[in-house]
Amino acid sequence: MLHSHLTTLHTISLILQLLDKEGEDSAEDLLAGSGIRLDDLQHPDIRITTAQEMRVCANARARRQELGLLLGQRMHVSSYGLLGYTLLSSATLGDALELALSYPALLGTYFELSLHHEGDSVWLQADGYRDLHELETFNTEFCLASLKLVCDDLLGRPLPLRDVQFKHPEPDYRASYAASFDAPLRFDAGRNALCFDAAWLAQRLPLADPVTHRDMRERCRQQNSEFVHHQGWVTRCRQTLASQLPAPPGLDSLARQLKCSPRTLRRHLQDAGTSYQTLLDELRFEQARQLLGQALPINHIAEVMGYSETASFRHAFQRWSGLSPSRFRA
Asked: Which CATH number is associated with domain 217-329?
């Protein structure tokens, strides 16, 4: 199942609105190390990478541990753009969920989502988490809270839950879960999932419209095809660069390896909302984080990553994360 390395600025905007409203942090502090500028928020068509999004999420979660739940409670079905309105026009809740799960790139999920029937119950399950380990609890809470809200929006009323399970341990802010999940909660469970009566899958949606749905579904298919095409170029670039990180090829050399012209490669990356330098920085940052988690001297990490001077590595890491390597490790 293809996921996207690209996403919109919607979640970033929600984070800034949420924490700015509470007067907890400046926007600049929350955007630190992401490469996202305040001016970018005035252009909703801009695409950012999921690595940029997760950088802001990490900054924000350091201030509010229950951030995933708070964001999930605000991710209405309309937040998903074209896909969201296509879901609203579906005939039944089951039809809408099957459609959503068939377009993970448009849904913007970090999980493999699936429906599992067990007797008269159905589990909406989130498996195969594929991002930073330190943000797994945040992303799980965000995912399940937003899925519950989407179901409520589609039905026009709350979807009654039978059970909610999480793989992570019970957090100190357990009381915050009540706003999203009015059901028994289980932590340290074997799965991340919402359980409800299977009969709800056949529930007709109040905004169902077969003519509109047919048109919107075709537009979703076209948008997904474009996403997949752009994602293919991003994935190939990332894989090629990752294999040569200590001595990365320049844009011209990378284009030759991908059998295209530098102009073509630059255009494909621009269409995907990224660039050669952005991808290279992301990969270097990922590797640096992994190495900093080991008991290695910073000068040795700089050498492994291909920096001739430790000061150059420190400067680059400060630019990527907003922190020095030693502070990040601490």
From this structure: 1.10.10.60
